[in-house]
Write a structure and sequence with these properties.
Blueprint (H helix, E strand, L loop, with lengths): L5 H10 L5 E4 L12 E4 L2 H6 L6 E6 L40 H18 E11 L2 E3 L2 E3 L2 H4 L4 E8 L15 E8 L15 E3 L14 H10 L4 E4 L6 H8 L3 E6 L2 H11 L9
Parallel strand pairs: 1-2, 2-11, 3-4, 3-10, 7-9, 10-11
Antiparallel strand pairs: 4-8, 5-6, 7-8
The chain binds S-adenosylmethionine.
The site of S-adenosylmethionine has 21 residues, from strand 11.
């Protein structure tokens, strides 16, 4: 409990005494109650098993394919160079983050298409990804969202970055693509946040690539919607914030270790040692 905010503690002890469930996906969700639960499985398969128009808001950050690198730095198990201490250099528990770029784009487009199918007519997706320079040329992640209903691109300015390279300016920004159905409206007053969000990256979460809670809090302050889905849930930051904002959540994560980490985090356990 010590690691959760006072607000979360209050919510947990007073209103949410049942432990968070991990649902192991077996090919169907028929008859399964997966609201406020963590579904352990491949998100594309799981989303395909969910009914259309059943989710109001999707907040997600997929793997960035960082191990697929033409450079010298970010290689698996590297102990030298500027990335020696970056946990992400070893990929994720159940995902090596190293696809041929065209396959990565095709995979992510399939995921975004499925997310759009799940949205209610007033729903929105906040899809976070990051441009990269590879073989001297920009991999512009707008390729992933091309042709989908893109309303705006928010620039997330972090306070640091791991991809140092003498050949290009150090990128300190990521992109959040706001894809939405036509009836989606920002919460009243949220336009004041502007399209540049300066929020420090998370440093105390043992997951290799966690969201900062402040980023999700801002999204939830900006976007209404009861049911919030994160199909690449990692350590469960989206659910922690959704609960704080009185929303319901659905998490999907393929690594059993990260599912357990998220469960312990939501239930006030020693989650920082869980994976
Ligand atoms: C960038 S991390 C998300 C971190 C998360 N936002 C947090 O705050 O902890 C991406 C996550 O996607 C998961 N993942 C990779 N491929 C997946 C798949 N096919 N289905 C579900 N999860 C997947 C990885 O295990 C990793 O935890």
């Amino acid at each position: 409990m010590r690691e959760n905010s006072a607000m979360q503690q209050n919510f947990w002890t007073k209103e949410c005494a049942a432990p968070t469930r991990i649902v192991n996906f077996t090919g169907t969700l028929a008859g399964v109650d997966y609201r406020d639960a963590i579904i352990c499985g491949d998100c594309l398969e799981v989303m395909r098993a969910m009914p259309e128009k059943s989710v109001h808001l999707i907040v997600t950050s997929p793997p960035y394919n960082l191990l697929n690198s033409t450079g010298n730095g970010l290689k698996k198990n590297t102990r030298c160079g500027k990335w020696a201490n970056a946990a992400i250099k070893n990929g994720y528990q159940s995902w090596d983050d190293n696809m041929p770029y065209a396959d990565y784009v095709a995979w992510q487009r399939a995921c975004v298409a499925e997310m759009l199918r799940l949205l209610t007519p007033d729903g929105a997706i906040f899809y976070n990804n990051k441009n990269r320079v590879q073989a001297g040329l920009l991999q512009d992640r707008r390729e992933i969202v091309a042709g989908f209903p893109l309303r705006q691109i928010i620039t997330w300015k972090r306070s640091g970055a791991i991809n140092f390279n003498a050949g290009y300016f150090l990128p300190v920004t990521e992109q959040i693509y706001l894809l939405c159905r036509r009836d989606f409206r920002l919460a009243p007053g949220a336009n004041k946040f502007t399209d540049v969000w300066e929020i420090k990256q998370e440093m105390k979460n043992p997951h290799p690539a966690p969201y900062p809670e402040a980023l999700i809090d801002r999204i939830l302050q900006s976007a209404p919607g009861t049911v919030v889905l994160d199909p690449f849930a990692g350590s469960g930051t989206t659910a922690v914030c959704a609960r704080r904002h009185g929303r319901q959540f659905i998490l999907i994560e393929q690594s059993p270790a990260y599912c357990e980490m998220a469960r312990q985090r939501l239930d006030g356990g020693q989650w920082r040692n869980a994976a």
